[in-house]
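Notes from the 1:1 (GR / supervisor)

We went over the backlog. Supervisor wanted to see one worked example end to end before approving the batch request, so GR pasted a single chain during the call. The sequence is below; no edits were made to it. Supervisor asked that the structure be written out right there so they could see what the output format looks like.
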Amino acid sequence: MSKSIFNPKHQQIDISTKIVAGLERISEAFKVLL
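Structure output shown during the call:
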């Protein structure tokens, strides 16, 4: 996975990328819980 998705400057430019990064973090949390 590209690390640019988690780059804060890139997130300010592309809001959809910010949403994708957030969903990735949520999915990782569920993987840990399950």
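Supervisor's comment: The radius of gyration is 11 Å.
Batch request approved.
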